[in-house]
Amino acid sequence: MKEHELGKARRIAELAAMHRRGQDIIGRLPVEDIRIQYHEDLSPLGWHLGHCAFIETYWLREIVLGDNATTATLHGVYFPDLCEKAARPEFVLGRDQLLEWTGAVHSENLALLADPPAHMRQHRLMRADYLLDFLVQHYAQHLEIMHYVLAQRELRISGPWTPGRTLTPANPLGEALRLPRQPVMIGCDAPCAYDNEQPRHAFRRRGKYIAQYPVTNAEYLAFMENDGYRHRELWSRVGWAWLDNTRVDCPALWRRAEHSWYELSAAGPRDLKPDAAVRGVCFYEAEAFSRWAGARLPHEFEWEAAARAGLLQGLGQVWEWCANRFHPYPGFRPFPYEGYSTPWFDDRHGVLRGGSEHTLPPVRRTSFRNFYTLDKRHICAGLRLAWD
Ligand code: AVJ
Ligand code: FE
Questions:
Q1: Which pathway does the record list (predicted)?
Q2: Beta strands at 386-387 and 209-211: parallel, antiparallel or unpaired
Q3: Residues 322, 352: Cα–Cα separation, whole Å
Q4: What is the rounded CA–CA span in Å between residue 215 and residue 346?
Q5: Adjacent-strand bridge partners of 176
Q6: Crossing angle of helices 130-157/3-27, nearest 10°?
Q7: For residue 1, is pLDDT > 60?
């Protein structure tokens, strides 16, 4: 077997593993729960699995092979811009039917990928197994989002719980790392990288320091107990308006117990570890916290420069809000479709770097840019401080 073939076998196995994870999540839930919309920004769990199977089939059959027999009637259900979130529950198949349908189209797709006809191999999307990487990463991102849905479901169904430990506040340590002085290359040219990670370009530091660790639960509690949610001067104008509207006073999954706090997760209630990264805060809260701590959020390039120098610790617990908006790199070219990144370069989306406990290896890389609007709290997001 040639090296290239080995790569392909591994990628096919990865795709199959992603699909199995999705099936497992659906398979162990009560029948009714897969069609519930638990949060206005999230889709029903059943929709996610159907969408992943649809997207896989759409790219392989409709785009590469020009055969729309399976997908033609499903565009209005599974293309996000053709079916608003609130309408999705009514389209979710019954659990067994969903498992059977997604299982069947997925097996057919795997067989096609394992032994593609000659004209399929020539397609530009098949070069360097691009489409396989793309589909694996697509599944990986939806699987993470399915965990956000599971956490919202816990918020809905779980009763009172007694934490095993008391969370006590701690002042932010502010252990700072010096950002590299010399220019650092930002982005990734690997074939698997998304359009928004390219092209690579040099960045020279502006600020000087970035925190070694993300902000912790204990530090965030200090902000709360110091009336961080009530001090207007810590908030930007839009941030304050957002707060006034939502009346938020703690991270999204935190719950108050008699003498302390705990948090809900995709796997149920759990203690808030004092040194674990705080999760479930939006950009505005991250911004207010950093002002309270006498710091600021890092620009995404500061974050990436520090991550490339191997400096950052505590990675992979939460997505970390960056100071800047999501924007195209100089020389950006959209691929494999206009809609992946371009619509979100709208000055309303912030950038998140790093990755959470639910982020799977195919999308865990230093150059990966996640993006959400500034008010989102259902994602597993926290922050890391920076200083000039
Ligand atoms: C990059 C996570 C914001 O969920 O909308 C999934 C990823 N794009 N299917 C999203 C995505 C198309 C995207 N995020
Ligand atoms: Fe998608």
A1: Amino-acid biosynthesis; ergothioneine biosynthesis
A2: antiparallel
A3: 6
A4: 28
A5: 211
A6: 20
A7: no
Structure token pair of residue 206: 């502006």
pLDDT for res 3: 64
The per-residue pLDDT for 206 is 83
- Percent of all residues in the chain with a pLDDT value above 70, rounded to a whole number: 99
Tracing tokens 């999307």 back to the chain, one arrives at 125
Q: What is the mean pLDDT of residues 193-208?
A: 94
Domains 3-157 and 176-387 alike in fold? no
Q: How far is the CA of 46 from the centre of ligand 1 (A)?
A: 17
145 CA closest ligand 1 atom index: 4
**Within a 10 A sphere around the Cβ of 132, how many other Cβ atoms?**
21
User: 370 CB under 6 A from ligand 1?
Assistant: yes
pTM: 0.97
Q: Specify the residue with its C-alpha closest to ligand 1, atom 9.
A: 138
pLDDT value at 236 more than 80: yes
Is the CATH number 2.40.420 carried by domain 3-157?
no
Assess whether the C-beta atom of 371 lies below 6 angstroms from ligand 1.
yes
163 cis-preceded (ω within 30 degrees of 0):
no
The CATH classification number of 176-387 equals 3.90.1580.10
Q: Whose CA is nearest to atom 3 of ligand 1?
A: 371
Residue 141 CA to ligand 1 center (angstroms) comes to 6
Ligand 1 atom with the smallest distance to the CA of 51 is 9
- Residue 2 pLDDT: 64
Contact 40, 93 (CB under 8 A): no
Q: What is the mean pLDDT of the chain?
A: 96
